[in-house]
Amino acid sequence: MLGKIKSYTKKDNLLSIEFENGTASVTVVTATIINFFSPHLAQRRVSKAIENLQTSSTPFSIDADADQLTIRTKKLKILISTDFKTDIYDTLGNPLCEDYRGDGQPFVRRGSSAQLEIASQEGHKIDEQASGEKIKIFKKMAENTYFYGLGDKTGHLNKKDYHYRMWNTDNPNPHVESFEAMYKTIPFFIALRSQQAFGIFFDNSFESTFDFGKENSDYYAFSAKDGDLDYYFIYGPSMKTVIGGYTYLTGRTPLPQLWTLGYQQSRWAYTPENRLHEIADTFRQKDIPCDVIHLDIDYMDGYRVFTWDKKKFADPTRTLTDLRKQGFKVVTIIDPAVKKDKGYTIYDEGLKNNYFATDKDGIPYVNQVWPGDALYPDFANKTVRHWWSKNQKIMTDTGVSGIWNDMNEPASFNGPLPDDVHFNNDGISADHREIHNVYGHYMSKATYEGLKEATGKRPFVITRAAYAGTQKYATVWTGDNQSLWEHLRMSLPMLMNLGLSGITFCGTDVGGFGFDCTAELLSRWVQVGAFTPLFRNHSSIFTRDQEPWAFDEQTEAINRKYIKLRYQLLPYLYDILHEEESNGLPMMRPLLLGYQSDEATYEINDEFLCGDQILVAPIIEQGLTSRMLYLPKGDYWIDYWTKEVFAGGQYIIKKAPIDVCPIFVREGSVIPLYPVQNYVGEKDVKQLTLSIYPFVRSGQTNYEHYQDDGESFNYRSGVYNLYDFSLKQVNEHELKMTLKRPHAEYDHAYHSFKFILNRINDPKIIVDGQITPFDAAGEQLTFQADDPKEIHISY
Ligand code: GLC
User: Fold this and answer.
1) Residue 345 to residues 300, 304, 306, 349, 391: CA-CA distances in angstroms?
2) Sheet architecture: strand order including 338-339
């Protein structure tokens, strides 16, 4: 217990407080982001998540009276009292987040140890009560609070009443709601109450827990086994602002190469070489677009990372060049564990230079992974990261386009790594307890930097394990799911919560990794996959084939239809990711993120928004061919397939035969589309299509479209184009559009535009004063213009 406040000093944004029994500090990062810190482990502080934080001076005042300090920023009032208790209010004095007074009072698990003994004979286990926590923060639970975030934990979107553990875990059993720990540690959550949101980021890499009222409904709490008390309060009140604040701290997903948004096909394992070619050729023969094929562990020579099995791939460079000619990029898996094998360069170099984690006596630590006895590179050491970065060139020189980092929790086959395994931690020695949860994060960082240096292009890294901030370096997937309807269902809240936790570029193994997929399950899963940021079908060895054509003609046609739809939507998806670089907002969003004032959206697990214009309400139950769905209040929604209009704020029943995924477009939307291509870059897109969804009554909106070369970092020095489309619905029969080009530095601008007019009949179209003909062939009404500035449509 820190005791009473003795004194304080203020310097710039930092308020240092001396208590009777220790010290603490409050940093006013911005008027809405406040850090609370108290050293426990040592007087040192190295955030693994936050790098190069730019703070500028933020005005705030401090008033001191008998026992407490009152801090006021433009947006918040914060009271600090005895024992570093903190209570946060908005400027009107409404409580936002108050510390709970009193000790924790967890519910009791009844039963004697003898009964436990008996129960365990049949394999029953009790959940361990948390123990050995050095830091625990209790917050008062206010009524009707909803909790979101924490990365890809299982269960529902709202985490209220559940308890979670942050300890990166590779558990091959089917993921279920009762799993407390998964592969990632994203110790960040958002609390939403009375339409107001704030976030808390607990920046502590030791094993931690989050309890949202399960232990006791009077409080929620977060704790850690060691490390410092170090957390950020991030005020909204809009959730979008909270996510903006969290990603301002931990970083944002950099714009990826455009092809990474294409369809990706994976399997453990597409080897040998002729199988890989067979897969590639089948995509092209069957007219199913695909950009990427993944090579799982079997391409390696005896699972030695950065090697190729020459019996399976006689000349990998040639193979990859041939695939490249067909438009395929190849991504190879790289695991962290290095085979213990004298004469194997990576092992020899690592051993000679002390690059591996050691036991407490400094002897390189050995466990077992795919290659048998293996060692773990100490990614917490900059020098080791640099070495690992350089190794990426071995792969890119062969023509590899991206790297898939797996098993980096780190996983081990011979029991867990002991707590005292030692890491360098950039010069501040640390043990496994502190590094475990950031191991995958540091590995991704090393991979990202290596790919960037080797290729100069935007790196494509996929990782399974992650920590807060990994979004700066890697795309993630949700690990080893199974071909179960339950896992399709659960993937939606998992991916939505990842997005709310700063990880916008994420996906799940489409079709399911373990177990055998069915035709119907794959058909429904690809309908979801088409709208998830990472769109990769992946399955395990010995499971039934799961490629788009692996079942029957109908399933193949459904895969083709949704993969093609994905390719049409590429410019829209790319726009979302471009915007994300400046606002941190995910591509796949729970409805509540767009409609915070509509409380009916707060618990919707089975629908999502793709960006802010498209709503997807997939079928995620076997046999269903219609479903009930909710359309958020305040907007009209247009059925993408039938163009029927529905007012928001109601539940509707939608028919959805096996080839139909219910999709709705918000009124007033402008959706940029590309022609379908077999792979990104196959066609030189000179004409941009804009699908226009007029407002039902009236309204006004702007859509900004972004265009660049899709692969280099030149956009950071301004080499890109922006197209600003504004729509003004004057009345039910009159629409005005203007087009501007606020930024035009990329010399590959579109030559012309094609407009699709949805829900407009028999219009009179005037483009820059000229009556323009339209084409009403087929179902769509379209017209074209080269360089329109003002368009007037009456109908
Ligand atoms: C792990 C990965 C999985 C991969 C397999 C073999 O289980 O999660 O995606 O296919 O290892 O490398």
Assistant:
1) 14, 10, 10, 6, 11
2) 338-339, 372-375, 366-369
Ligand 1 atom nearest to CA at 266: 10
Within 10 A of 194 (CB to CB), how many other CB atoms are there?
A: 12
The tokens of 318 are what?
Answer: 């040639």
pLDDT of 207 higher than 90: yes
- The pLDDT tens digits for 419-472 are 999 999 989 999 999 999 999 999 999 999 999 999 999 999 999 999 999 999
Tokens 């909204």 sit at which residue?
236
For residue 274, CA distances in Å to 299, 679, 778 come to 12, 21, 42
Distance from C-alpha of 415 to C-alpha of 711, rounded to nearest angstrom: 42
Single out the residue of 376, 434, 432, 354 nearest to residue 46, CA to CA.
434
Task: Supply 387's token pair.
Answer: 């070495």
CA Rg value for the chain: 27
3-state SS, 667-709, equals CCEEEEECCCCCCCCCCCCCEEEEEEECCCCCEEEEEEEEECC
Phi, psi of 115 (to 5 degrees): -65, -35
Closest by CA position to 339, among listed 310, 381, 297, 311:
297
Q: How many angstroms is it from 293 CA to the middle of ligand 1?
A: 15
Angle, helices 382-396/345-352, rounded to nearest 10 degrees: 160
Report angle CA 407, 410, 414 to the nearest 5 degrees: 95
Q: Is 480 a catalytic residue?
A: yes
CA 480 to ligand 1 centroid distance, Å: 7
Among the listed residues 211, 406, 431, 449, the single catalytic one is 406
Give pTM, 2 decimals: 0.98
Determine the distance separating the centroid of ligand 1 and the alpha carbon of 406, expressed in angstroms. Answer: 7
Segment 675-731, tens digit of pLDDT = 999 999 999 999 999 999 999 999 999 999 999 999 999 999 999 999 999 999 999
Catalytic residue among 480, 580, 635, 711: 480
CA angle at 29 for the pair 24 and 32, rounded to the nearest 5°:
110
* Domains of the chain (ranges, CATH numbers): 1-250 (2.60.40.1760), 260-336+384-581 (3.20.20.80), 588-666 (2.60.40.1180), 686-794 (2.60.40.1180)
Q: Please, which residues bridge with residue 712 across strands?
A: 457
Catalytic residue check, 406: yes
